[in-house]
Write the structure tokens for this entry.
Amino acid sequence: MRCGVSEVHVQRMAEKPLLDRPQVKKAVQALQAFLKNKASGEALFLDEAQHVSLLFTLWKIPKEAQTIRIPLPHGQRSDTEEICLFTRDEPNMTSDQTQRFYKKLLQERGVKSISEIIPYKVLKTEYKPYEAKRRLLGNFDLFISDDRIRRLLPTHLGKHFYKSKKEPLCVNLQSKHLARDIERVIQGTSLKVTNKGCCCMARVAHSGMTADEVTENIEAAVQTVVTKLRMKGPVIKLIHIKSQTSVALPIYTSDLGHLSVLESKQAQTPKDKESASTKQTKKNKTEDKKQADTTAEGKRKEKKGKKNKAAAEEEEEEIPQLVAIETPIKKPKLEKPSKKKKLEKAPKPAAVKKGTKAQSKLIKKTDSKVKRKVPKVK
């Protein structure tokens, strides 16, 4: 169902153009007039071209982040911008040899927009310090990388490349149409839709372009964004055009049909809730009735069982017979020896024993004295 809803919405957007071309052209002309007046007041910045961007405001915050590549009919970068290319390390070649190899390859394919080539080994060694990374970030306006090393770059570039939205764009350097692919990446743009807010911006043109070229780029960008957004139903609420120093000029505002759809959904939801609640109450009532019936039947069965038991007991009752009671004969108690007598023991003749021992010792001593050998007299 989701795919069907999104396809229907895309078909409607294709049938009815989202933007009014004359209105967009008026906004572009007003923006260019503002930039010219500002440049005339500041003579130092006459030669610098300012970026022209599209600001999209969505009805809802997206659930998932998304990056949309937008091809443009007219190049949105000036010829003075510096572009850097990161390449992989070729086997059995030094960093200088790989640099010369890729320069020769680009010249043969007719690519002239890239100003510097940096192999991966040079990026790891020479641009390892924090200051070198910041210098590299400020020296170039756009970074392109070989798609074979794109997963290795984030650890060596650092977070500042991604915060300033200058992360490298991937290109297949082995393709047969290398010049065309690089020009599409350089002259195209990309829109980053985050799940942290409902606003997103994409660079579309520069102040040195004509009004017709800017309007054509705007129409192409809006069409691709509407078709590639992963959201169902009406998506875009507002579209503005602005430069780096100007106020945002609106070129599209959606009607309130989206709000009517939301209100109809909200009106349907309480009815559904009421119907669900009525169903639950009915179910509860039926369950209560069943429980009451079961309890009543159980009570009736218990009463019937008690009555039957009482009747059986009355039938079984008989007249008790008189029986002579024999008195038990008391047996004479035997005298038990008292505990005190048991505990009394004969005293130990310790003194006698000691005396006897002493007497025996004395007798032995005397015997030894008496039994002395008398020398024989010859």
User: Anything to note?
Assistant: Residues 77-187 form a domain with the Rossmann fold fold (CATH 3.40.50.790). Strands lie at 51-58, 66-70, 83-87, 116-119, 142-146, 169-171, 189-193, 199-206, 236-243, 249-253. The first strand starts at residue 51 and ends at 58. Confidence is low (pLDDT under 50) at residues 1-15, 339-343.
